[in-house]
Here is the input.
Amino acid sequence: MTTTAEQWRDDIVALLPRLRRYCYSLTGSAVDADDLLQNTVEKALSKYDQFQQGTDLDRWMFRMCKNLWIDEWRSRRVRGHTIDPMDSQNEPWIDGETVQENKLGLRDVQTAMDKLQEEQRIIVFLIIVEGYSYKEAATFLSLPIGTVMSRLARARKALEQLLRAPEQDASYDIGGMDAPGRLQ
Here is the structure.
């Protein structure tokens, strides 16, 4: 193994926390996110010979991850719905009013995020959670910067409405998507 390959692998390891958060933003499930992360890293390591020096590793890995998720999503549509064994009903609660309120608040945000269409959820993750600029997010997703800006604006509006009136969220149309990347 050359020093370049060792450095490349070290760079992947450093990217893992961000990549895992991205996986979670795509899947909405910790279990699925871990599986997607593992598949992404496995594929990246097997494709080392195809990685071109000078290519942005973040962009390369995020794109690979999204493509793997789209493949998995399509496969699941064919197989049908499965039940998440890590259902939130099984999570233990920690005593303490503040801790409980914070968890409930985070859960509300996560529930609202899960209701966003995938493209909006990814934009929120890249820009708000990871702190990428609009231009960087547009580059990652191969989208015009205006599309990124409008999706983020719609996502923020949808999140605000979902968080303000969770009892009315079923009637709110948060997107026009029926599958990752496809309009209805």
Observations:
- Residues 3-79 form a domain with the Rna Polymerase Sigma Factor; Chain: A fold (CATH 1.10.1740.10).
- The two ends are 48 Å apart (CA to CA).
- Helices lie at 3-27, 30-46, 57-79, 97-115, 118-129, 134-141, 145-164.
